[in-house]
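Sanity check. The docking grid for magnesium ion depends on where the pocket ends up, so I'm generating a full predicted complex first rather than guessing from homology. Inputs follow.
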Amino acid sequence: ADPSGPGADGDTTLTFGVDGTVPNIDPVLADNSTVDQSVVPMYESLVDYDPDGTLAGRLASSWKVADDATSVTFTLRSGALFHDGSPVTAEDVKFTLDRAKALGLGVAQYLTEYVSSEVTGDNELTVRLAHPSTLFVGGLAKVYILNSKLVQKNAGSDQGQAWLASHEAGSGPYTLKTFKPNQQIIYVKDADYTGTKNPDAPDTIVYRLIPEDAPQKEEMLAGNIDVSDGLEAGPDLDAVLADGSKKAVELAKPQGIYIFFNTQRAPFNDPKVREGIRLAYDYQAHVKTILSGHGEVATGVVPAVMACRPDVQPFAQDLTKAKELLSGLAKSGTELHLAYQPIFSEMSDAATALQSSLRDLGVKVKLVTTDYPTYIEDLKSIDKTPDMTVVWDNPPTPDVGSLLSTRYTTKYVEKGTNFGQYSNPAVDALVDKAIGTADDTERCDLYKQAQQKLVDDSASMPIADEVTTVITPKNVTGVELYPAHVGYMPQTYRMSN
Amino acid sequence: MTTVAIAATASRPRRKRLPVLDVIAFGAVVVLLAMAVAGPWLAPHDPYQVRLDRALLSPSGDHLLGTDGLGRDVFSRILVGARSSIFAALLAVSGAALIGIVVAMVATIGPRWLDDVVMRLCDITLSLPVMVMALGVAVALGPSLHSAIVAMIVAWWPGFARLARAEMRTVLTAPYVEAATVLGASRARVMTRHVLPNSLDGVYVQATLEIGGATLIMAGLSFVGAGAQPPSAEWGAMVENGSRYLSSAWWISTFPGLMITLTALAFALAGDALRNRSHPDSTLG
Amino acid sequence: MRLDLATAAPEAAPDAAPRPLLEIRGLTVSYPGPTGPVEIVSDLDLTVGRAERVAIVGESGSGKSVTARSLLRLDRRATVTGSLLLDGTDLLALGEKEMRSYRGRRIALMLQDPMTTLNPVLTVGSQVMEALRVHGVGKAEARRRAIAVLDRLGIPDAARRMRAYPHEFSGGMRQRVCLAMAIVAEPDLLIADEPTTALDVRVQEQVLTLIDSLVDELGMGVILITHDLGLVAGFAERVAVMYAGRRVETGAVDELYRSPRHPYTAGLLGSVARVDRDDPLRPIPGSPVMPTARPVGCAFHVRCAHAEADCGVERPEIRLVGHSDVACHHPLALREGA
Amino acid sequence: MTDQPILAASGLTKTFGSRRDPHRAVDGVSLAVHAGEILGVVGESGSGKSTTLRCVVGLEKPDAGRVTYDGLDLAGASRDVRRRFRRDVQMVFQDPYASLNPRMSVERIVGEGLDIHRLAATKQARRDRVVEVLEVVGLDATILDRHPRSFSGGQRQRIAIARALAVGPRVLVCDEPVSALDVSVQAQVVNLLLDMRERLGMAVVFVAHDLALVRHLCDQLVVMQHGVVVESNRCADVFATPAHDYTRSLLAAIPIPDPALDRARRRRAAGEVPA
Amino acid sequence: MTPKDLALFVVRRLLLLATTLLGIVTIVFLMIKAIPGDEAQAAAGLTASPEQVEAVRRRLGLDDSVLQQYVGYLGRLLHGDLGNSIFTFRPVASDLSGLIPYTIELVVLAMLINVSVGVPAGMLAAARHRSRVDDSVRLLAIFCGALPTFWLAMIGQAVIGRQLGLTPISGVATIGLDVPRRTGFLTLDSLLAGNVVAFNDALAHLVLPAAVLSIPFMSFVIRVVRSSMITALEADHVTAARAKGASERTVLVRHGLRNAIAPVSTLLGLQIGWMMGGAVLVETVFNRPGFGSYLTQAVAHKDTFAVLGMVLVVGVIVTFVGLVVDLVQLVADPRVRLLEARRA
Ligand SMILES: Nc1ncnc2c1ncn2[C@@H]1O[C@H](COP(=O)(O)OP(=O)(O)OP(=O)(O)O)[C@@H](O)[C@H]1O
Ligand SMILES: Nc1ncnc2c1ncn2[C@@H]1O[C@H](COP(=O)(O)OP(=O)(O)OP(=O)(O)O)[C@@H](O)[C@H]1O
Ligand SMILES: [Mg+2]
Ligand SMILES: [Mg+2]
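Predicted complex below; grid placement will be based on this.
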C-alpha cells in the first residue's frame, strides 16, 4: 500500500502515527498537545503564531488591545463559514469563550483573565479582562471557535461535551470523516474552506493513534505509517530512511525537560543546594544518550526557540563544585524525593540518571511516581509538592511572559502552575511590569532581566530543549513548527508529485 | 494369641529414581534462589550506576549481556533483579498461602455462618482477575513492587483458602481425626496435630506451582507500569524498559525476558514434580 | 419367564463339542515396573466348559483381576503370554480390531463395584445399549433388546427406567444393570470379577441366583472371581485357588471343600466363620503376599504351618493329588468322613 | 456380668438431609452392653448402624434419645464423668487405611491417648505402655518408629485397636472392623477381639455385615432395618428362632462354605424370594 | 431433575449472583473510600473550580454519612452511572460500553483457540498416558505457561506481524474499512453489513493477539484436561466400556471427555475472567482499544472511577460466566443435578 502517492482518483492521503491517546476531540481540551494536533485540522482559532513567532490573525482579521490592556476588540474575517455552511459570527466566538470559561477545563487556563464578551456586530466583539494583560491574545491560539448553533442543537445539559467528544463543529480546512476514540481519525479536505488555501495539502489525512512505543515502531518499519515523530536516531531510523522514500525533518520544539525544586522547603530553600544539584547532572550525555541527540542542552529557563531570552551559557556538569555545594546535604543523610511520570521514558531515564549521579556524591534520592493530574493537584500545597520533580514543560503560549508568570511568580504559588512554588519579589515585580508594558522592546528587556535572575537563583533546573524528528515521505514539504502547537500541523504540509 | 512377625516384605514403597527433568527443575530452582540471595555480591558492575557514555553497548567481555539505554550493565541488573523478581513472587505466594490457610482454619472451626461468609468473600474476590485487581490496588496505593505484592496477596488468598478448606473438611471427617476425638483430644489438638499437617500438601504443591505464575504476573504488572519502578532491576520492568530498543538493542529486554520464562518454567516443573510425588495424576493442573 | 435374547447368538452350537469353551494355557501377565517387568500372574492353566461355573478364589492382590482383564486383553501396558483358546481360536493371536469384536459379544466382563462400573453421566439405558451398538446393532434393535434384558433381570418398568441415571438406582438395581451390560450381547463366556463384594448378603444372593439362571438358559460359561470361599460353595462346579499370582489348587467344588489339599486352601476355609457350626476360627498367620514380592520357593511357605525346609527353596509344580491339581511339596492328606 | 449395663442408649433418633427432604437415619434405637459382653449390630447397608454408633460415642449429636454410661446420663453429666467416658469408651473404624494419621509414627499414634489423658508420667512410661498394648494385639516393639503406610490392612487394624486399648477402655466400639480385610486376616482380628474380652473383661460393640462372623463372636444381637431395631435378643436365640421376617431373610441369604449344604440352602431361598 | 427443580436452581443461583454482585459493589465502594484524595474533585475533574467541585459533592451526596453515600452509590449504579472519567471527560459507563465489545471479541476468539488446541492436546496426552507423547505434551504445556504474555506479544508483533507479514501489526481494523457500528463487535457488524472484506480484516487483526492471549491459558487447559481425563479413564466404567468392545475413540470421548466436563468447564469459566486480566497486556502491546488498554491508561492517569467501574464490570461478567458454567454442568453432568436436587 502506498497511500502517500496519488490514489486511483488522484487523491492524496497521508497517514500519521500519533503517539498518544485521544479519547475525546472536544477542542476545549486542546491544552493537551495530542488533542490539539487532532483538532487543529478541523478548527480555526482567532489568532495563531506563525513559524517565525509572530502572532497573526486566523478567524480574526484584526484585533485591538485597549490602551489600559483590560479589553480587546476583535474583528472577524468576513465570509468565513463553518462546515455546515453557516457563517462564523461574533456570537460563535462569545459562545466558545463563555463555554470554556464555564467548563473550567482545558484551554480555560488561557482565559483566566477573561470576564465577558460583548458582541457589537456580526463580525465584531469586545472581550473584557479582569486585569491588564498583554498575554491574553496569544493565549487564544488554542481556543478553537465552535459553531454555536450546531453545538447548542446537539447539547444536553453538558454544554455539548458529550456531542463534541466525537463530532466537530469547526471552520478549519478539513472536515471529520471518522473518529474512533484512541484508534484513528480520518479527515478530508473541505473544498469550501474559506481561509488561506493550501492546494498541495493531502486530500485525506489519517491519524493512527498508537501510544505504545513498540507497535508504533513496528508499524513504521513495516511502512504502514507515512509520517511519524516516534523514532529515535539509530538503526530503526536508518532502516526507515534506507530505501530513500523517506526523509527526516528536525523541528526544535518550545518544549523542554526540567527539574523543579520545592523552593519553599528545606533543603531546596537554599539556592546553593539547588545549584549543587544543577551542577551534578550530565546535560551533554542527556541530550546525546537519553534524547539520542534530538535536542539541545538548555540555555535558560525558557526554551531556546522563544523570543526575549538573555544570553546564558549552556548548563554543564561540574562535579567538584557540586560535591562541595552538596556536602552538607550529603552529611545530613536526608533522603530526597524525586517525582517523575513513569509513562514517559525520558522522565524516568532522567530521574534515574540524576539519582545515580547524586548517589555518587553521597546524596540519597528516592524516586517516586506521579502522574500529571496528581502533580498539578499536589502543587496546590507546598507540603505536598515533591522535593524535586522531573517534568516536561511547554509554555502555555509562545509568549515568554505566559511561562514566566505562571511558573515563577508568587501569585501562582500553591495554584498548581508554579512548579517550584518559587517566590521572589524581584522577579514578581519584573514580570508584572513586563506584562503591563505594551512596548515590545521594553517588555522584552524586562523579561530578560527576570530570566537572568531566575538562572542566577537556580530557581529551576532546565535540562534540555527538545527536538522532534519528523519522518515524512520525500515528496512532503512544509513541515514546520508552529510555536503554539507542538504536534503535527498536517494542513500546512504540501505534497508534490 | 501368637505375635505376628512383621516381615520386611510388608509393602514398603520402593524409593523411585528421580526423573532427569525433575532434577533439572529442582536444580534450576536452587540456582535461582541462590541468585536471589547472592545476586548483589556476584554482580560484576554496579547495577544502578548510570553511565550515559556507555549506553546500548552490545554484549562483550566487559558487559556479558551488554548495557541498557542508561549504560547500566544488563548482566549485573539481572543478577540483582533476581531478588526483587523472585522474592516478590515468593512473598506474594507465601503471603497468600498463609492467609488462605489461616482463613480456611477459621472457616473450618468456626460456626457455619462464618464459613458461609468467608466462602462468599472468596467467590467475590475470585471473580476479579488478578491483573485487574492489581491495577486497582496500584491506583489505591500508588504503583510499586509493594503494591503489586499486596495486590497479588489480595487476589490469591481465596484460591488457597478454598483449597485448604476443602482439604481440611476432608481430613476432618477422616477416621483418624474421629479416632482422636473419641480419644478425648481437644478441638485445638485435633486441628494442630491431625488436620493441619494432613491438609497442607495440596497447598504446598499449589504454592510451588503458583510461584512461576506469580513471577509472570509481577513482570506483567511492571510492564504496564503498576509494579516495580525505576531504578529497580525487576525483570519485568527491565523488559519494559528495553522494549523501546527491541530492534536496535535486543539484549536489553531479551535476557530479562528469558529469565522470567526460565523462572516460571523451573518453578512450574518443580511444582509438577512435587505434585506427581504426593499424588500422581490426581489433582488439577 | 420368556427370553427374548435369541436374535444375536447365531453360533451357540449345542453339538457338545469335546473341546472346552475356554482353555487357558500357561497364562503369564507382567507389567512394567520401576526396575523392569514384574510378573503378576504366572503360568496359569484353567479350562471352562460350556454352561460351566468356575470360581477363582484368592485374597487381595493375588492377581485375580489381572487375570480377568488379560482374558479380554484390556490392558495395553500388560504383556500377556501363553495361550487363550476360546472355542479353539487363540485370543492372543487376534488383531486388536478382531479382539474388539470378541469383547462383549463372545467374552463379557462384569466388574466389582456397581457404582464405579456405571458411568455416572450416561443413562442406564445407553450404557446397556452400548454393548450392542459397538457391535453394529441398530439403535432401535439395541433398545428393544436392552429393555428385554433389564426386564428379564427384574428391573420393574424397564422401558421407562432406561432413561434414568445410575445414581437414581439402588445398589442392587445397579448391580443388575452391570449384569445386563455384560450379558445383553449374549456372550459365550461371562467373567464376573467380584460381582458382589460391595453388596449386602441378600442382594449378593439375588445376583448369584440371576447368573445361575442365565447359565441354565443361555448355556454360557462363567468365571466367578471372589476372595470369599464361603460364597461360591453352592454356586461353582469347579474352584481354582490363587495365591500371589499363582494357582495353588484346582478341583471340583465338593472335593475341594471337603478335603482341601493345599494348606492355603485349608487356611482359607478355616478362616471363614460358619453359620451352621461353632468351630473356632483358625486364621492363617501373617498377611497375604503380593505377586511383586514373592518369596523364593513356595510363595506361601512363610505363613504355612506345614512348611518344611524344601518349601523355601524350590517352587512346587502343579500335580494331581487325589482329584485336585495342587502346587505343594507336602499336600494335606485326604480328610476322613466329610 | 452385672444388671447395670456399662453403656446404653435409648430412643436414639438422628435425621439427616434438608428440612424439605429429611432422612431419618436412626429412629428410636435402643441398645445396651454389659461388661465382658459382645454386642453385635447387623443390618444391611444404610440401615443406620454406623450412625447409631457415632451417636453413642458422641461423634454425632442425636436429635433425641439419651446415652447412659454406668447409669449416668451423659447429657447432664459432669465434666469429670465426660472425661472418664472419653477414656473408657473407645472406637475402632472400618477403613484401616484411613484410620491412622499418616504423618505419625506408631508410637505417637498409640500413645496419643496417653498424652491426652496424662496417663504416662514419663516418656519411658509411655513407651512401655505402648509396647505393652502392641504386644496385646500381636505386634512388637520394632515397629514403634514406623509410619502407617508401611503396614498391611490387618496390621493397621491391630494398631488401631492398640490405640484404643492404650487408655485402658472398658468398652470398645467397633464399626465393621474387619469388612475391609482379607478373609484370613479377618479371622485374626476376630480372634483378637475374643481374646481381649477374655483377658480384659472388656465390653465390645461390634457392627458387621457378615452374619456368620457375628454369630461366631457375639453374645447379644441387634438387627436393624431402615434405622429401626427390628429385633434384639441373645445372639444364639436370634439365629435359632428369628422373630422378624427381615431377620429371617437375612439368615436365609448367608452362604455356607459347604457345597452340598449351600446348594440346598440356595434352592430353598430361590423358592422363596426372587425379588 | 424436574423443570421445577431447574427453575429453583436458577433462582437460587441468581440470588447468589446478586449477593456476589453486591459484594463486589461493596468492595469497589470501600476502595473508593479508601483511596486517598477527594472523590468530588476526582469526579468533577481536576481542573474544575472549587464551586464546581462543591456542586458535584452535593450532587453525589458526598456530604452525607457513609451509609447514605453507600445507598446513593447503589442507586446511581442502578441507573448505570459509574461516574465520570477524569481522563476522557466522559461517563465511564459509556466509555466502557463502547470498548467492551472489542475485548469480548478478543477473549472469545482466544477462548476458541484455547479450547480447540488445549482440549485435543490434553486428550492426546491422556490417551497416551505415560508415553513419550504424554511427556512432550505436558512439557509443552508447562512451557507455554511460563511465557510472559507481553513478551510473547512483542515478539509476535515483530516476527509474525512485521518480518513475516502474516498478520496486521496492531490495531483492530485497516484504516478506511468501515462498517456501520451496530453491535459494537467489529466481526459481527461487518457480517451484518455483508462486508466480507471487512470481516476478514477484523478477523486478521484479531488472530495474533488472540493467539498470544490464549497461549498461557492453553497451558492450564491442557493440564486440566489431561489430568481429569486420566482420572476419568482410570475409572471402572471405562474398563467396562472396553470390555463391551467399545473402540478407543468411543472410550475417549464418551467415557473420558464427557466425564471430564465438570472440571474442564469450571476451569474454562474461570479463565474467561483471567483472560480479561490478560487482555490488559495484550491490548496494550497490540494497540487494540478495549477494556485492557483503557484500564492501563486509567491507572496511569489515576482515573479512579474508570478503574473501579471496570473492576465492577469485570466482576459482573465473570459472575455471569460462572452462572453459565453452572448451567452447562447441570445439563451435562447428572451428578451435579443430583447434588443440586439434594441441596434443594
Ligand atoms: N495396571 C497394573 N500395573 C502394575 N501392577 C498392577 C496393575 N494392576 C494390578 N497390579 C498389581 O497386580 C497385583 C494383583 O492385582 P489384582 O488387582 O489382580 O488383585 P486381585 O486379586 O484382583 O485383588 P483384589 O481382591 O484386591 O481385587 C497387585 O499387586 C497389583 O499391585
Ligand atoms: N453425615 C451424613 N449426612 C447425611 N446422611 C448421612 C450421613 N451419615 C449417614 N447418612 C445416611 O444415613 C443412613 C444411615 O447411614 P449409616 O452409615 O448409619 O448406615 P450403615 O448401616 O452404617 O451402613 P453401612 O453398612 O453401609 O456402613 C444412610 O442412608 C446414609 O446415607
Ligand atoms: Mg480385584
Ligand atoms: Mg456403616
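Relevant for the grid: Residues 183-200 of chain D form the longest helix (18 residues).
Also worth noting: The domain at 7-269 of chain D is CATH 3.40.50.300 (Rossmann fold).
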